[in-house]
Design goal:
This protein folds into three domains: about 10-130, Acyl-CoA dehydrogenase/oxidase, N-terminal domain (Butyryl-Coa Dehydrogenase, subunit A, domain 1); about 130-240, Butyryl-CoA Dehydrogenase, subunit A, domain 2, CATH 2.40.110.10; about 245-405, Butyryl-CoA Dehydrogenase, subunit A, domain 3 (Up-down Bundle). It has helices at about 15-35, 40-45, 50-55, 75-90, 90-110, 115-125, 245-280, 290-320, 325-350, 365-375, 380-395, 405; strands at about 130-135, 150-155, 155-165, 175-180, 195-200, 205-210, 220-235, 235-240, 280-285, 285. A four-stranded mixed β-sheet has the order 1-4-5-8, covered by helices on one side. It has a four-stranded antiparallel β-sheet with strand order 2-3-7-6, with helices on one face. Strands 9-10 form a two-stranded antiparallel ribbon. The two termini are about 25 Å apart. The chain is of the alpha+beta class. The model has no long low-confidence stretch (mean pLDDT about 95). Helix 7 runs parallel beside helix 9 and helix 7 packs antiparallel against helix 10. It has twelve helices and ten strands.
Length: about 400
């Protein structure tokens, strides 16, 4: 009944009055400041700087960051709530929160105190932005296969290589870059030898070569980065040399909860539009909501939304409790929420009929947005593989499966 957990209590999703107060505050801000600009941002693919400044003034960029480093504090559940509320109206805006988290997580987990004091507070205040430079033209899901290299020269590192599809990179001030610092010992241990470095905008030899026009998540851009003999001091190395792959995986364990929340928010936003439309649109002398087929669709959509939301909030709660199982549940949430979101959004377009495919209606854009969530931070097929391997590791640690079974999948 409780497998793979230990108790039925592990399935509880605990939300407090503080969480609800925060949700209302985010909803009010988004409705007031973001909703009126959503279609303009969608059309221009640009977020006004004054809007990002207002988000910073509300302290939203500091959610989930310890107060010690200038943040607002809060937990993973609060971050999920914020992401969901923003994605309900304009999903592209939530990417700025996600890329900041991707940059900060390795530093907060493995960085030095000096790195935390220098780089975390400006991002928490919304004065600076971060980006996570791992993906390369050759390598997406195969993180261990990246080709960017860093060579130690004296007390500095010289980085050469290219990165691709890096979100927020055109506005980022700080980049955390994964590079190979020594060859892997063998094929089985090919993940060893990768190291994280902090590279600041304006460093000689580092440039943004081009930005791409993508199908969705408008308002946030992805770009290609070039590193030509980029020198960084050894104090910009994050954590132990050669352990960057493991640091990246631990980072994704946490940030993919936010991707699941993005999908939940998109579903919620498009469902509300569809629900309102079918009760206004008339056919054969009745609102189309009076027809059983429409009612069935709405119920099926709501079931998927609620299931995805509960799974996402469970992952966040387990992460807040630092439970080992959170990694497995986070993978399930990311895979499930982004998958059913495509189904829910597609059905919402169907319920709108012809107007559902009209850009000005503001419905079809959610379908373009959600497709990206199925790809970044672990494509869904890879995500299912990751989820299974995480489950096996957890069961092995609990002694619930023998080593001879675990060795085939870990």
């Amino acid at each position: 009944m409780v497998f793979p957990f230990d108790s039925v209590e592990d399935f509880s999703v605990v939300l407090t009055p503080e969480h609800e107060m925060f949700r209302k505050a985010v909803r009010e801000f988004v409705e007031r400041e973001v909703a009126p600009k959503a279609m303009e941002i969608e059309e221009k693919d640009e977020v006004p700087w004054d809007l990002l400044k207002k988000i910073a003034e509300q302290g939203f960029f500091g959610i989930g960051i310890p107060e010690k480093y200038g943040g607002q504090g809060g937990d993973h559940r609060m971050a999920v709530i914020m992401s969901e509320e923003f994605c309900r109206v304009l999903p592209g805006l939530s990417v700025y929160f996600g890329t900041n988290e991707l940059f900060l997580t390795p530093i907060l987990l493995f960085g030095t105190e000096e790195q935390k004091q220098k780089y975390v507070p400006p991002i928490a205040r919304g004065e600076k932005f971060g980006a996570f430079a791992v993906t390369e033209p050759c390598c997406g899901s195969d993180v261990a296969g990246i080709q960017t290299k860093a060579e130690k020269v004296g007390n500095k590192w010289v980085i050469n290589g290219r990165k691709a599809f890096i979100s927020s990179s055109d506005v980022a001030d700080y980049f955390i870059v994964l590079a190979r610092t020594y060859p892997p010992p063998d094929k089985k241990l090919r993940y060893l030898g990768l190291t994280f470095f902090i590279v600041e905008k304006g460093t000689p030899g580092f440039k943004i070569e081009q930005c791409y026009h993508k199908m969705g998540l408008h308002g946030n851009h992805v770009c290609e980065l070039v590193f030509e003999n980029v020198e960084v001091p050894d104090e910009n190395r994050v954590g132990e040399e050669g352990m960057g792959f493991l640091y990246a995986m631990e980072t994704f364990d946490r940030t993919r909860i936010g991707v699941a929340a993005q999908a939940v928010g998109m579903m919620q936003g498009v469902f509300e539009k569809a629900f309102q439309y079918v009760h206004q649109r008339q056919a054969f002398g009745l609102p189309i909501a009076a027809f059983q087929a429409i009612q069935f669709s709405l119920v099926e959509m709501m079931t998927k939304i609620m299931t995805a939301r509960l799974l996402t909030y469970l992952a966040a709660k387990l992460a807040d409790e630092n439970r080992k199982e959170f990694t497995f549940v986070a993978s399930l949430a990311k895979y499930y929420a982004t998958s059913v979101a495509e189904e829910v959004i597609s059905e919402a377009i169907n319920l709108h009929g012809g107007v559902g495919v009209i850009v000005e209606t503001g419905v079809e854009r959610y379908l373009r947005d959600v497709k990206i969530t199925q790809i970044y931070e672990g494509a869904n097929n890879i995500q299912k593989l990751v989820a299974y391997r995480q489950l096996i590791r957890i069961l092995k640690e609990k002694g619930q499966i023998p080593d001879e079974i675990a060795k085939f999948v870990t």
